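Our consortium's second objective concerns turning raw sequence data into structural hypotheses that experimental partners can test. To show how far this objective has progressed, the report includes one record in full. It was chosen at random from the queue rather than selected for favorable results. The single chain below, 72 residues long, was entered without modification.
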Amino acid sequence: MATATKETRRDANLTGNWAAIVKDGVALRFQQYRVFRQTVRELSELNDRELSELGLSRAMVRSIAREAAKAA
């Protein structure tokens, strides 16, 4: 009887751990998405001359935003 209770608690604990891992993963992805969108928005507001002064082109905006999101 005690063994069955231990295994049930252990299984519940593992399920709780998986739920926490998934929740943390979703939270991380959401944070990365927010950083991506903010970076795209801010760089898109710059005109071509301002981007050029930073050594960037308009075609690079999304890839730079992806890198910023990975770093977040």
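The partners drew two points from this record. The chain has a mean pLDDT of 87. The CA atoms of residues 47 and 53 lie 10 Å apart. Both points have been shared with the crystallography group to help prioritize constructs.
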